[in-house]
Amino acid sequence: MKTLMVREGKGKFVLDIKAYFTKKVSLMKRNSIILLIIISIFSGIATTVYGQSNTDREIRRLNAKLEREKVRTDSLETKIRILLPELKNALSATVTAKKQTDSIAILLVNRINTVQNKIRILEDKAEYTDSTNFEILSQLVMIENKIVTLTNSFTEMYNLKNENISTVTSTKLTAIKYKKLYLENLGSYQNGEFSKAIKGFAELVISNPTHELADNSQYWLAECYYSSKNYKRSVIEFEKVFSFPGTDKDDDAQLKLGLAYQNMGNFEKAREEYTRLLDYFPSSEYYQKAKEALRKLSLK
C-alpha cells in the first residue's frame, strides 16, 4: 500500500485522501468490470461449448435417424422393384377380366331384354287368348242356354198339346183359347219372332194373371227380351216371375238373371244372382251351371 505524505496544510491532506480513495474505487470498478467481462467471456465460451456439444449430439441423432429411414426406404424400393412386375401383371389381368365381365354383363343384359320382350309378347298373346277363350265360352254358354230354353219350350208345347183343359179361367179367354195362344206365342219365340211373341205373352199375362200358365207366359216374355239382347228389360221381366205363387219357373228365372247381368258386364250382380240360386235352389237342375258360372267369374 502506498503511504500518503501530507506536506501541506490540512486541506491538502484531505484532498489526497479523497483522490486516493476515488482512484481506489475507480480501480476496483475497473477490475470488477474486467472480472465481469472475463466471467462473461468464459461463461459464453462454456455455454457455446455446451450448446455446441448438444447440437452435435442432436445432429448425430438426426443423422442416425436419417440413416435408418434411408435403409427402410432402400428396402421399400427394393420390394417395390420386385413387386412392380407382379402388380403390373395383376393389374393387366384385372383389366382383362373386367373387360370380359363387362362383355358378359352386356350379353346377359341383352339376353334378359330379349327374354323380357318374349315374355311380354307371350303375356299379350295369353291375355288375348284368355279373352278369346272367355268370349268363346260365353258364346257356348249362351248357345247351351238357348238350346236348354228351346228344349224347355218344346217340352212345354208338347205337354200342353197332350193336356185336356176344359175349365174356363177368364171371362175373356177360355182355358182352350189361353192354351192355344200360349202355344202360338211359344212357336213365335222358337222361330225368332221375338216382337210378336212379346206382344202375345204380354197380352196373356194381362188378360188373366191367375191362369196356371200366367207365370210361364211371364217367363217367356222375359226370355224374349233376353233373346233379343235387351238384357236390362229382361231383368225387369224375370224379376216379375217370382211374384206368381207356386211358380215352377223361379229357378229358371234366377239363372237367367245371373246370365243377363253377366251379359251386361255387371259381374258383381251376376255373382250375387248365381249365389242366390245356390242358396235358394240347392236341388235345381241349374245348380251346377250356376256353380260353374261363379267359378269362371272368379277368374276375371
Name given to the CATH homologous superfamily of the domain at 130-298? Tetratricopeptide repeat domain
Architecture of the domain at 130-298, CATH level 2? Answer: Alpha Horseshoe
CATH T-level topology of the domain at 130-298: Serine Threonine Protein Phosphatase 5, Tetratricopeptide repeat
Radius of gyration: 64 Å
Number of helices: 8
Order of helices and strands: HHHHHHHH
Task: Describe the largest sheet.
Answer: none
Structural class label: mainly alpha
Uncertain parts: 1-7, 164-171
How many strands? 0
Could you explain how this protein is built, in words?
The chain has a domain at 130-298: Serine Threonine Protein Phosphatase 5, Tetratricopeptide repeat (Alpha Horseshoe), CATH 1.25.40.10. Helix content is 82%, strand content 0%. The protein is built from eight helices and no strands. The chain has helices at 10-161, 175-190, 194-207, 214-227, 231-241, 250-263, 267-280, 287-298. Helix 3 (194-207) runs antiparallel to helix 4. The longest helix has 152 residues, at 10-161. The chain is rod-shaped, with a radius of gyration of 64 Å.
Index terms:
300 residues, mainly alpha, Serine Threonine Protein Phosphatase 5, Tetratricopeptide repeat, 8 helices, 0% strand
Brief description of this entry?
With 300 residues, the protein is mainly alpha-helical.
